Amino acid sequence: MLRAAKRGENVLLIAPTGGGKTLAGFLPSLVDLAENENDKGGLHTLYISPLKALAIDVRRNLEQPVRELGLDIRIETRTGDTPQHRRQSQRSNPPQILMTTPESLALMLSYSDAPSVFRSLKAVIVDELHALAGTKRGDLLALGLARLQHYADKCRRVALSATAAHPEELLDWLSPAGSCLVSPVRLIEAKGGRKPKISILSSKQRIPWSGHMAMHAMGEVYDHICESHTAIVFVNTRAQAELVFAELWRLNSKNLSIGIHHGSLAREQRQRIEAAMARGELRAIVATSSLDLGIDWGAVDLIIQVGAPKGASRLLQRIGRANHRLDEPSRALLVPANRFELLECRAAIDAIDAGELDGDKPRPGSFDVLAQHIIGMACSAPIDQEAFFHEVRTSAPYKKLSRNEFEDILNFVTDGGYALAAYDRYKRLVKGIDGKLRIASKLHIRRYRMNIGTIVEAPKLKVRIKRGRVLGEVEEYFVNGLLPGDTFIFAGETLQFEGIRDMNVEVIRAPLREPKVPAYVGGRLPLTTSLAARVRGILESQVNWTKFPAQVRKWLSIQSEQSILPRRDELLVETFPRGGKYFTVAYLFEGRNAHQTLGMLLTKRMERAGLRPLGFVATDYVISVWSLNEPKDIPALFGLDMMADDLEEWMLESSMMKRMFRNVAVIAGLIERRHPGAEKSRRQVTFNSDLIYDVLRKYEPSHILLRATRADAEGELIDLHRLFDHIQRVQGKITHRPLRKVSPLAVPVILEIGRERVDGLASDDLLAEAENEIISEAMNAAID
Amino acid sequence: MPPLINPMRHLEIEFAGYTIIADISGALYIPDEKILVVADLHFGKGMRLAAGGALVPPYDLQATLHRLEKLIRSYRPETIVSLGDGFDDLDSLNRLSATDRHYLITITNSTNWIWISGNHDPTPVAEAGGDTMNELKIAKLTLRHEANHDEREAEISGHFHPKARVTVRGRSQVRRCFVTNGTRTILPAFGSYTGGLDVTDPAISGLFGSSFDALVLGDRKLYRISSARIS
C-alpha cells in the first residue's frame, strides 16, 4: 500500500472482511501527514462509506493510533446527522481527514465553495466498493468522484472491497478515466486466509418438503450456539428473523443472551444491540442483510445461515463476518429449510470450493441519477456543457453515455424536456451570455438539497405500543393488509393491530395468540444463475447424491422411477390430475420472480386456449399452474411466439413499473420525496406519481424518464431474460410427462399452494395433515 | 339516436326520484335532464406545479379534455356542469398555453356549460366560456361544490376527491369512487392530476352517518361496495 501511494497510484484492495483492510487504506495518508507536518493546508483525505455507522466507527478506530503516535491530525465525520453549525465549520475550516457518505459528498459538492474545500485533497478512500458499484448510489458517487478529480487532479483513489465476481469491473469503476486501461489502478489482493469450513446441518429431524422457516432445526441450531463463543444467525427475510428469534428464546433453557437485528427496528434499538455485540455481551444475534456490511466483531466464531444462501458470493460475504483473524478458518453452518434448499446449500458449497463467484455485471449509469447530479453541479457553479459532458464520461457508469442521451437529460433538467415546450417561464437552468447554464432560482437549490440521494424507500409507518414507545417501522402496504385485531410478530413480540392514529400503527401486546406473520418488501432474493445451474447438475447425476441424507436420496430415486429427473438441456413439464383439477409443473430453476411473471403469462395463454386456469404458484425452482381442463399441447404452451408481446403488455401495466417510475421521478427531481415527520395529514390531498406515469405514457411514451424507468426494469428483470433465453434454448426439447398423480419432485410446490391459500402459522397443523397425504400419494409408501 | 352507453361501464342509481348514471370515468349523467356532471377538473394544476419547480408532463388539460370529449360523444348531453374547482386557481386560464386555452373554450362553447364555484375558483374565470353559479337547483336536486351538513334535500357535490381502499385476502387497492346513500352523492375528481381523500376520513364519512355505498372505479367495471367492506 505504502509503495503504491508513494508512486501516486490508484489502488483497489480486495480482501475478505476484516484483516484490517480499512486501516491499511489510511496508512499512506497518516504517513504523508506525519512527514509533512508543516503543510496542513486543508482537507487531505476523504473517506466514503455506504453506512453512516461505519464512517463513525472507522473514525474511532483511526483516532486511537493517531493519538498513540502523537500525531496532530484532525479527523471528523460528516453525515446526515451532523448538526448544521458543524457542517458549516467543516467547510470553512476543514479537518485533514473527513469521513462521509455518498449523499453527504454530493451535498458538499453542490456549494459554491466546493473548489476551495477540495483543492487540497490528496486521497479518496471508498469503503465496501462491492456494495456500491452497480447501484444508483454508486452512480452518484462515481459522478461525485469525477467532480473531485476536476478540483484536485492529483488526488489518488483507493477502494476497499470484499471478494468480487468481476474485479476488472471494479478496477474500471475506480479509474479516474472510467477505464483501468486508460488510467491504471493497481490491484492488491490480500490472501483470503484459510478456506472457510462450511458444513450443512445434518438434521436428525425429518427435512421438510416445503416452507422457509426451518423451525424443525431450531433445537439443533440452539445446541450449536451453546457450543460456540459468539454466533451470528443469518436469515433471508425479516419475517424469518422474527420467527427464528422467538423460537430460539422459547428453547433458551440456559438463558443465553440472544439479540435480533433487522432494518425495520428502531435505530436506537439496533444501536443498543450493536453496542452489546461490540462489548462481547451477546452469545448470538439473529440478523438479516442489515448486518451483511459493517463493523467488524472479532469475537464471532460461528456463522449460521438459516434458509438457502441464494448465491455463493453472498454466502461468502456472510461467512466473512466471522473470525477476523486470518490464521484461522471461518466456520459456517448451513441450515436448509426444505429439500430443494438442501440441494441449493450443496451447490453453494461446491461453488465456493471451486472458487466460482456469482454476481451480475454492473449495469450502465442511471439517467435519473445524472439528472440529479446536473442540478447539484449547477447549484455549485455555472455549467460549461462541453467540459461537463467529458467530465461525466470519465466515470465508469457513464463511460458510454451518448451525446444525445446527455442532451435529453439536460433538457429534462432545464424545462422537463417535453415535446410540448410548455415551461419556458419555469426553466430550472438558464443560459448566460457566456453560454454556461446557471440555476434559475434559489427555489431549485432548496429543492435539490431537500431531495438529494438515490434511496427512495417504500412509505413506512411507525409501530407504537398504545400509550407507549415506538418499536420500529413497517412498510405501509403491510399495514394496509391488516384489520384491527390481527396479530403479527415484530421486534420479537407478538402484537395486535389496533388501528392507525396520527401516522402511527397502534398496537398492544398479545402474547397468547398465534400471530399472522409479517411479509416485507424485498425479503426474498432470487437464486443466482450459476447456483441454479449447479442445482440442475446435482439433480442430473446420481453420483452427486452420495452426500445427501438417506431421506433425500430416496425422494430423488422415486422421482426417477415415477417420472424422470430434469436434465440440464431439456425442459421437464409434468401434468397430473389432483382434486378435480389439472396441475402443470415446469422445472425451470430460474428463480421465483421470473417464475411468477411466467405464471402470469402462462395463465393468460391457457385462458385463450380454453383450459380455464384457476391459479398458479411459483418457487425458486418451478412454476405450477392449475386448470379445470387438461393441458395437452405443452410445447405450444411454452412456445416463444407472442410471449414477448404478452410480457411487454404486462410490464407496462404492472405496479412494478409504477413503483419504479416513482423512484426515477423522485431521484430525477420531478416530484419531491416524502419527508418523515413532515408527512401530510390524511385530510390533505396528496399527489400521486401514478397519475403522471399514466399521462406521460399516453402523451409522450419516449420521454427520458420513461426510458430510465424501462432501463431500471430491465435490471430488475434480468432473471426474466434468463428465463426467456432458457425457454428459447429448450424449444423442441420439451419433455412432457403426463402422470396419473403428483410426482415426488412436485410435492414441494403443491404444498406451497396450500401455504399461499391459508394465512399464518395456525394453519401449520392443517398443512402437516395435507402434507402427509400428498407425500404418501407421491411416494407410494409411508416415509420415515 | 339514444346515447351509446356501454352497460359494463356504468351503474344506475335511484336518487331523489331520478335514475342517474354513474360512469366509470367518474362522471355522472342525469338522463331526464340530459345533464352531464363532472367534479374537480383542476385545469391548470400541472402549470401551477411547474411554477413551484415540479416540471410535470404538461398534458393534464389535454388528457382531461380528451376523456370529457369521449363522454360527450357517448352521452350527448345538453348541459355540462363542472361541480367546482374547475380551475386550479383564478390565474390558471392565463397560464395555459394558447393551444390548451383554445381547446378548452371549444369544448365549453360546444354545449350549455355551467361552472359552479369551488374553493379553488370562488369567482367566475373570465373568457373561460359558459356561465358561473354558486349552486344549481333542478327540481328537488341541488348541485354544489362542497356537501352541506344541514342539507335535507337530495344533493350532488364534489370537493373531497373520494377514494376507497378495498382489502381482499390481505391484498388492498385504492381506487377513486363515488360515495352515495340515496340522498347525498359525492363525485370523484375528474381531473388528470388529482389525488384523493379516503372515504373513511371523518370529513367524508361524517356526512353519511351509519352507512353508505362506494361505487369504486375499476379498470373495466364499476363496483358497488358497502361501507362495511371498506377498511
Report on the structure:
The complex is a heterodimer of chains A (784) and B (231). By secondary structure, chain A is an alpha/beta fold. Chain A folds into six domains: 2-189, 3-Layer(aba) Sandwich (Rossmann fold), CATH 3.40.50.300; 197-353, P-loop containing nucleotide triphosphate hydrolases (Rossmann fold, 3-Layer(aba) Sandwich); 367-450; 460-509, no CATH class; 549-638 and 731-779; 650-721, no CATH class. In chain A, 42% of the residues lie in helices and 16% in strands. Chain A has 30 helices and 25 strands. In chain A, the strands form five sheets. In chain A, strands 3-4-2-5-6-1-7 form a seven-stranded parallel β-sheet, sandwiched between helices. In chain A, strands 8-13-12-9-11-10 form a six-stranded parallel β-sheet, sandwiched between helices. In chain A, strand 14 (429-431) and strand 15 form a beta hairpin. In chain A, helix 15 crosses helix 17 (403-415), helix 15 (367-380) packs across helix 18 (442-450) and helix 29 packs antiparallel against helix 30 (764-779). Chain A is globular and about 80 Å long. Mean pLDDT of chain A is 83; it is low at 518-523, 676-686 and 755-770. Chain B is of the alpha/beta class and 231 residues long. Chain B has one domain (10-229): Purple Acid Phosphatase, chain A, domain 2. Helices cover 19% and strands 32% of the residues of chain B. Chain B has helices at 45-51, 60-75, 92-95, 98-110, 202-205, and strands at 10-15, 18-23, 28-30, 35-38, 79-82, 112-116, 131-133, 136-138, 141-143, 154-157, 162-168, 171-180, 184-186, 197-198, 213-217, 222-226. In chain B, the strands form two sheets. In chain B, strands 8, 9, 10, 11, 12, 13, 14, 15 and 16 form a nine-stranded mixed β-sheet that branches. In chain B, strands 1-2-3-4-5-6-7 form a seven-stranded mixed β-sheet. In chain B, a hairpin with a 4-residue loop joins strand 2 and strand 3 (28-30). In chain B, helix 2 packs parallel to helix 4. Chain B is globular and about 45 Å long. Chain B starts with 9 loop residues before the first strand and ends in a 5-residue tail after the last strand. The model of chain B has no long low-confidence stretch (mean pLDDT 88).
